[in-house]
Structure formats: C-alpha cells, structure tokens
Amino acid sequence: MSVTRIRAILIFLLLGSFFVVQTVFGATLEEKVREHVFSNGLELLVVERHESPTFAAYITIKVGAVNETSRIRGVAHVLEHMLFKGTKTIGTKDWRKERPIQDEIERVGSRLDELKNRPGADPEEIARLRERLAELQSEQKEFIVKDEFSRIYSEHGGVGFNAFTSKDLTSYLISLPSNKLELWASVESDRMQNAVLREFYTEREVVMEERRRSYETQPSGLLYENLIATAFTMHPYRNPIIGWMSDLENLTLEETRDFFHNYYAPVNTVIALVGDIDFEEAVRVVNNYFGGIPPGTPVPEVAAVEPEQRGEKRIAIAFDAEPQLAIGYHKPTLPSREDYVFDLIDLMLSQGRTSRLYKSLVLEKEIATSISTYGAPGSRYPNLFVISAVPRHPHTPAEVEEAIYAELNRLAREPVAPEELEKARNRLRLDRLRHLKENNGLARMLTYYQTIAGDWRYLVNYDEVVSTIAPEEIMEVAGRYFRPENRTVTILRREGE
After folding, report:
1. In angstroms, how far is the first alpha carbon of the chain from the final one?
2. Mean of the per-residue pLDDT values for the chain?
3. pLDDT tens-digit readout, 463-472
4. Residues 63-97: pLDDT tens digits?
5. 93 Cβ neighbours under 8 A, 6+ residues apart
6. Whose CA is closest to 185, among 52, 258, 282?
7. Nearest 5°: CA angle at 65, between 245 and 310?
8. Residues facing residue 492 across a β-bridge
9. What is the mean pLDDT of residues 288-316?
10. What is the pLDDT of residues 230-246, one digit of tens each?
11. Are 377 and 237 contacting, i.e. CB atoms less than 8 angstroms apart?
C-alpha cells in the first residue's frame, strides 16, 4: 500500500474519531455547563471535570476598545496593564504611607498633562513639574512590591496568569490547583474592588513604546491599522485597541480610574470555572467574595452604525519594508448565518497547503510567499473578512491582488465540491474540539460567547448549523460580499516604488 494511501486512511480515521468525540461532547455540553447569576448581576459558568486536580478561571468583562469615546481611546488596554499593579494590600509594603505619595503623583501628573498642550504654557513650570513627578515616583518605589500577583499565584501552583484586551472585551485568566479556588476568589475580588493604579505615568510610557514597536515601526502592524481605519468610516471599530499616540499622551489617571470604576464591575462580568471543582462550592465561594460588590454601570451598546460602503477604498503606504497587501470586505457578524458561511470560506481559501489561495498563489504560481484570511477587528458588531499576502520578489502586489480576485470570483461562480466542503467542516470540528477539550480553552470560549453572542449555547448548535450550509449558499455569499465596491485595499510598498 502506498504511503499516500496510508496517510489518507490515517487522516480519515482521525477525523472519524474526532467526529464521534465531538458528537458526544456536543450532546452533553449543555448538560455539563451549570450557571448561576448573583444578585449584583455577576454571571458564573461552571463545568466540573475531575480528571485532573486543577481548574481554569476566566474573568471576562464586557468592555473593550469599541466602548471607548474619542476622549479616552486606548483606556481599556492601559487598564489591562494597570490592573497588574496591585491593590491596597497587594503590591505595597505599607499602603497607609504610600497613599499620600500616590495622591500627590496624581495631582502633579494631572497638572503636567494640563499644561503640556496649552499654548503659551510656562516651560519652566513644566520642567519643574516633570522633575517633581520623577522625585515622587522615586519615593513611591520604596513602597512598591513588584509583580506580587504573579508571585502569589506561582507560589500556589498557578500557571498561565495573563490578560488580554480586544475590541469587544477584556479577560483575566489563570490555572490553579483545585484546592486554590478560595485563594483565586480572594485575589480577584480584591483586584475588582481595591485596585490601585500605581505607576500610571511610567506605564503610560510603556504602552506608548509598545505602540511604536508594534504599529508605527512594524510593517504588518502598520498595514493592518491603516486597513481598519480606512475600511470603517464612523464605527469605533476603526480605532486601534492600543489607541492613537495622541490619545495615549493625553489619557489621564482620573479618566482611567473612572472607566475602571464604572465598568469593571459585576453587572458586566462573566466568570467561567472549568476543572476539578464542585458547582455548589464554587457558587458559595464566589458569592462570599464577589457577591457584596456593587453592580456597577452596564456597558452601553454602541449606537454608531457603519454606513454601507458604495465604492472601493484604496490606500498606499510608503515604508522601508518588503511589499505587502491586505484586502478587507465588510460582512455581518454572529449569529447571522453568513458568519457561519465565512468560517467555511476562511478554511477553504487559506488554511493549509491544499487551500485555494495557498495552493494557487504560493505553490503553483509562486507569486506570494504567504497568504492568510481572518475576521477583523471584532465580533460583536459587523466586521471585515480580510485577505493579506506578501508578494514573492520580483512579483508585485498588483499581480497578487489580481490572482486573489480570480479565486474569489471562482468561489462565487462555481459550486464547491462536496469533498472540499466536508473537509472544511471537519477542520472546523477539529479546531473547536481542540479548544473545548482543554479546561483553559473551554473557559475562554464560554466567557467569549456569553459576552459576544449573549449566550454560551452558541457553541452547542454551531456544528449543526455548519452542517446545513450547501455549496449554493457559499456561492451566493461570495457573490454578495466579494464585490469591488465593498472592499478596502491597503498596499504597503517601499518609498519611491
């Protein structure tokens, strides 16, 4: 028997076994997830898995960059940094002595922020304020205990302590031994109630440097940021999660603290605990530590609606780097049926060596070194389907762009073969199962869909919906959305080319 045939049989068996596990898991997921909503609005999702003496904890707040106003763009990401700085009891040697310094730092820093952009401001006063701020920050260092959250968790067996901010939400995560549930609840409820935004001005500089490094001097970051800002005319999705540089320079400690106190609260929070824990015990512990926290203010929905795009948008960016291009098409988001179709289109176009764009542009025509497709920049509101590519020298972005359009047109004209469609469905099942099998992955997906889709049960019905999508529906969606007037094209090329 040939090696190729053996490999095909093995892949078939692997897909079959995953399909069986996925079918059983999908049938019981709704039974496994247990829910509790506390009187202050906090939502708790628990899945008991007793195979290993550990659990994963995700705290997801339903607030992200899309909820920022023009005055405070970048604040959600800055807060992600700040909430690792400690509380009134964690991260300090003596809060009673540190607090007057923290208050004075805010007074001096606020005055400095006020003057630095004021026309005719006294440069000598600005210099004195800068010097005084540096002195106060030096004094405060004597009381600060660096990285105490990380130390506490690591000493008790914690791994994967981290956080991330997106357009739509902010999450804090950790995995711990199963007998550390109360420790986790104590630490995280303290962080929600008593966070101290110490080292704000130094951390603001850190975020500004992160912006320079990841966007302003990084070709792919620059390309992506310009694509999103051009594709969206008015919706806040057009603004980067990290904020624009002038936003960061003028973001104040007071504004950051107000945003935290308003929204990082139980009414906007979903907690998922997955692993070797008991549901009733989890409810008791979470209630003891989080139940008395005031609800907070519900995050308002974004009222802005992006107007329909009626013509191609195209920009070119001059930068000292190899050429790249990105093409974005406006599309609906979940739970619309078209969003499921785009999940399949994504796999068929660029996931794997046999995918259409990779096979055509990279392997056969050899005009690109890489190609990828993905949804951006968020999922709570209508978004983009993005195709990005790097041309292979000496081929140009124009050649690659033309080849991409040829494949998109083929997708709109010719029905997808049943084998190709089933392969994409199987790949979706495999990818989702890999996430669902791990405690951390399941906790993340539960809080994500509870936040974005409004119900974690989106997970339960996903494969069933995908299985009903026919080749004709893929053609119809491709023809409807892959139109020239619905696209934004961003090309990065060397200066002078």
Report:
1. 53
2. 94
3. 999 999 999 9
4. 999 999 999 999 999 999 999 999 999 999 999 99
5. 142, 143, 144, 145
6. 282
7. 90
8. 317, 324
9. 97
10. 999 999 999 999 999 99
11. yes
241 with 167: CB under 8 angstroms?
yes
What are the CA-CA distances from residue 81 to residues 197, 205, 222 (Å)? 9, 11, 22
> Cβ contacts of residue 107 below 8 Å, gap of 6+?
none
Question: Is residue 344 within 8 Å of 428, Cβ to Cβ?
Answer: yes
Residues in Cβ contact with 144 at an 8 Å cutoff, skipping those fewer than 6 apart: 86, 91, 92, 93, 98, 198, 199
Longest dimension (CA), the chain: 84
Reading phi first (left if > 0) and then psi (alpha if -120 to 50, else beta), residue 199 is in: left
- Residue 60's closest CA among 164, 161, 159? 164
Residue 285 and residue 448: Cα distance in Å, rounded? 23
Q: Model confidence over 197-226: pLDDT tens digits?
A: 999 999 999 999 999 999 999 999 999 999
**8 Å CB contact between 333 and 458:** no
Distance CA 268, CA 61 (A): 6
Q: Which two tokens stand for residue 97?
A: 């002595």
pLDDT, tens digit, 9 for 90 and up, residues 404-430: 999 999 999 999 999 999 999 999 999
CA distance 273 to 262: 25
Query: HEC profile for the chain?
Result: CCHHHHHHHHHHHHHHHHHHHHHHHHHHHHHHEEEEECCCCCEEEEEECCCCCEEEEEEEECCCHHHCCCCCCCHHHHHHHHCCCCECCCCECCHHHHHHHHHHHHHHHHHHHHHHCCCCCCHHHHHHHHHHHHHHHHHHHCCECCCHHHHHHHHCCCEEEEEEECCCCEEEEEEEEHHHHHHHHHHHHHHHHHECCCCHHHHHHHHHHHHHHHHHCCHHHHHHHHHHHHHCCCCHHHCCCCCCHHHHHHCCHHHHHHHHHHHCCHHHEEEEEEECCCHHHHHHHHHHHHCCCCCCCCCCCCCCCCCCCCCCEEEEEECCCCCEEEEEEEECCCCCHHHHHHHHHHHHHHCCCCCHHHHHHHHHCCCEEEEEEEEECCCCCCEEEEEEEEECCCCCHHHHHHHHHHHHHHHHHCCCCHHHHHHHHHHHHHHHHHHHHCHHHHHHHHHHHHHHCCCCCHHHHHHHHHHCCCHHHHHHHHHHHCCHHHEEEEEEECCCC
Q: Which two tokens stand for residue 318?
A: 């001059």
